[in-house]
């Protein structure tokens, strides 16, 4: 991809499931960041993919930390690099459970400290590594091993929690749009201070679809509008092209839901509730982008 390193920082034989988009995202993130990068990884699928010492499938330094600690470690590491005059990229790469649930207090504190790091939450909408239990980021209606009848609460609105920290840069992205993703990573790394990205990461075993459908599912999430892509620089919000298109002519939400076993057997009332959540979010984002709220 133009503008990214030709080198690979993830070796081909990781233990990721077939069709894993979170490892695809990480491949693009590292190619966008280049070799002068340190990765901070809490307990999550990525900490399995990195391999077991003395072997590793990653070709850059990785600091593996406790589940709740990624943002605190990344922030401290960034301060240490700055103290010795180094510009090394510090990227925390954490799952949704490690971000919206257990790591949220460390993340909030780190975002307030003004240290120079990028925090990326790859969101497969469940605790994948431990067997697909629900997280705060699991969407309404989704079946997980701890919500076998479908989740009864809405997905936690992480992005508005992050927005309340008034960061120099935050963005949402999706594994199915790699050019957009790379551009946002490079922009984030070009800005000094704490930055945040939230990236949708379809997961075949968790979302219960065939591994060959990973890109299609990601595209449908954006085309329906259930996953919105945008950038926020302090209080200025800019919608990304595919989300602007989805606001004008959305793909049918039912199609996105039907593609995934985790939404099987949902009644119309649930679909209506999911649509209501989605439309409310898009209305708020549009108003913010147009400066009318
Ligand atoms: C304090 C603590 N509690 C629980 C665990 C067990 N644990 C390890 S990874 C994980 C789930 C991680 O989920 P997420 O952050 O969404 O990443 P994913 O596995 O989906 O990539 C859990 C519960 C742990 N390592 N530490
Ligand atoms: S469970 Fe999901 S996120 Fe984890 S390695 Fe498998 S496909 Fe990737
Ligand atoms: Mg997860």
UniProtKB/TrEMBL annotation:
Residues 133-149 have a biased composition (Polar residues). Residues 133-153 are annotated as: Disordered. It comes from Methanospirillum purgamenti. Heterotetramer of one alpha, one beta, one delta and one gamma chain. Keywords: Oxidoreductase, Pyruvate. CDD domains: TPP_PFOR_porB_like. Pfam families: TPP_enzyme_C. PANTHER family: 2-OXOACID OXIDOREDUCTASE (FERREDOXIN), PYRUVATE SYNTHASE SUBUNIT PORB. One of its GO terms (biological process) is sulfur compound biosynthetic process. InterPro entries: PorB-like, THDP-binding, TPP_enzyme_TPP-bd. SUPFAM superfamilies: Thiamin diphosphate-binding fold (THDP-binding). Residues 57-199 form the Thiamine pyrophosphate enzyme TPP-binding domain. The keyword Mitochondrion does not apply. GO terms for molecular function: oxidoreductase activity; thiamine pyrophosphate binding. This is Pyruvate synthase subunit beta. It comes from the Archaea.
């Amino acid at each position: 991809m133009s503008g990214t390193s030709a080198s690979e920082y993830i070796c081909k034989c990781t233990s990721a499931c077939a069709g894993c988009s979170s490892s695809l995202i990480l491949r693009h993130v590292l190619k966008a960041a280049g070799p002068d990068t340190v990765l901070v990884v809490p307990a999550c699928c990525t900490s399995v993919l990195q391999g077991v010492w003395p072997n590793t499938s990653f070709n850059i330094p990785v600091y593996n930390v406790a589940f709740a600690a990624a943002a605190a470690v990344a922030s401290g590491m960034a301060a240490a690099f700055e103290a010795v005059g180094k510009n090394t990229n510090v990227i925390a790469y954490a799952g949704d459970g490690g971000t919206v649930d257990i790591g949220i207090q460390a993340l909030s504190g780190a975002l307030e400290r003004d240290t120079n790091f990028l925090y990326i939450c790859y969101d497969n909408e469940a605790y994948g590594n431990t067997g697909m239990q629900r997280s705060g980021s699991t969407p309404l209606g989704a079946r997980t091993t701890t919500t076998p009848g479908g989740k009864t609460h809405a997905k936690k609105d992480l992005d508005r929690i992050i927005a309340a920290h008034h960061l120099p840069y935050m963005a949402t992205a999706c594994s199915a749009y790699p050019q957009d993703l790379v551009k946002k990573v490079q922009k984030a790394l070009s800005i000094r201070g704490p930055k945040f990205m939230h990236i949708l990461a379809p997961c075949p075993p968790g979302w219960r679809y065939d591994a060959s459908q990973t890109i299609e599912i990601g595209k449908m999430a954006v085309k329906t509008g259930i996953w919105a892509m945008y950038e926020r620089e302090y209080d200025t919000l800019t919608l990304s092209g595919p989300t602007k298109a989805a606001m004008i002519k959305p793909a049918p939400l039912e199609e996105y839901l039907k593609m995934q076993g985790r939404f099987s057997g949902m009644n119309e009332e649930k679909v209506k509730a999911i649509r209501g959540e989605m439309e409310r979010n898009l209305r708020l984002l549009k108003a913010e982008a147009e400066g009318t709220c």
